[in-house]
């Protein structure tokens, strides 16, 4: 993770080649970096983007979920939950500058921010069902809060990956921006949020999101048990193995 401060704005650039997949170690690093910025009194905003060309993030590292060690799987999921709690509940203003594909966990990271700008000709969405897995309730809550119930339930069931244009049309992202302007526009959008007194913006954000974060806090252990039980099922492991194979085939084909 490349993290630096530009005045009162923290910039986090995901930089885990080849595809910024989120494994246990990288999620832990992500959480430490965001918590550090959150606790930095001089930091009012965070921009999340990718240092890699063409990929924002490929989402959770599928290898963490394929033939897993159960203890590590539990730690992995705890870090995924924590990342969502940190981002969705963040007091600082957050902008996702999506400069590449953003499937599944990559989409969730951006949905957890306050504002999303995206470069053209990429795809974004919660494609979990395509892998034969099920997005947990807090993933669904987050997309539903962004695009509305009907569109979210349809997209979640199909595991639909939106093009940038489709994402803009349904409100999954807020603005389409040429890749060479994405950081400049992220700073402009940040300034708009800074024009509002921090405490008023923070309390309002909290009012909108707290009930969803509280829901996960209340069910956190059950959610982890559910994830571990689900992922370790033979049928799910088979589906995951097939999906990994299809990724490799797509590459060679
Ligand atoms: C109760 C149960 C709850 C379960 C909830 C679990 C929720 C899960 C959310 C997730 O995030 S699951 C992950 C979903 N992600 C994907 O489906 C993305 C798959 N990847 C792609 O579509 C493409 O790789 C890409 C991101 C569009 C990039 O394409 P590109 O052509 O540039 O690169 P590739 O050649 O396809 O990939 C390079 C290399 O990376 C490996 N890889 C890709 N994605 C992942 C990943 N998510 N995890 C691990 N590894 C990944 C890919 O297999 C290639 O590997 P090698 O062949 O080079 O070894």
UniProtKB/TrEMBL annotation:
UniProt-listed SUPFAM superfamilies: ClpP/crotonase
Top-level lineage group: Eukaryota
Gene3D superfamilies assigned: 2-enoyl-CoA Hydratase, Chain A, domain 1, 6.10.250.170
InterPro entries the record matches: ClpP/crotonase-like_dom_sf (IPR029045), Enoyl-CoA_hyd/isom_CS (IPR018376), Enoyl-CoA_hydra/iso (IPR001753)
UniProt family annotation: Belongs to the enoyl-CoA hydratase/isomerase family.
Protein name, UniProt field: Enoyl-CoA delta isomerase 1, mitochondrial
């Amino acid at each position: 993770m490349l993290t630096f401060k530009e005045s009162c704005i923290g910039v986090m650039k995901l930089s885990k080649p080849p595809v910024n997949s989120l494994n246990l170690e990288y999620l832990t690093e992500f959480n430490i970096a965001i918590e550090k910025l959150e606790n930095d009194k001089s930091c009012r905003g965070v921009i999340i983007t990718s240092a890699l060309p063409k990929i924002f993030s490929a989402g959770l590292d599928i290898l963490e979920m394929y033939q897993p060690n159960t203890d590590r799987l539990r730690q992995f999921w705890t870090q995924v939950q924590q990342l969502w709690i940190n981002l969705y509940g963040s007091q600082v203003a957050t902008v996702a500058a999506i400069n590449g594909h953003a499937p599944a966990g990559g989409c969730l990271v951006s949905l957890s921010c306050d504002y999303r700008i995206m470069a053209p000709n990429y795809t974004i969405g919660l494609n979990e069902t395509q892998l034969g897995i099920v997005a947990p309730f807090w993933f669904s809550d987050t997309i539903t809060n962004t695009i509305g119930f009907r569109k979210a339930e349809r997209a979640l069931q199909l595991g639909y990956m939106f093009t940038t244009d489709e994402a803009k049309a349904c409100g999954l992202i807020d603005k389409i921006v040429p890749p060479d302007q994405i950081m400049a526009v992220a700073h402009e959008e940040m300034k708009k949020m800074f024009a509002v007194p921090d405490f008023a913006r923070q309390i309002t954000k909290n009012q909108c999101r707290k009930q969803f974060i509280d829901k996960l806090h209340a069910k956190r252990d059950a959610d982890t048990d559910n994830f571990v039980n689900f992922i370790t099922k033979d049928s799910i492991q088979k589906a995951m193995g097939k999906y990994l194979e299809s990724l490799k085939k797509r590459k060679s084909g």
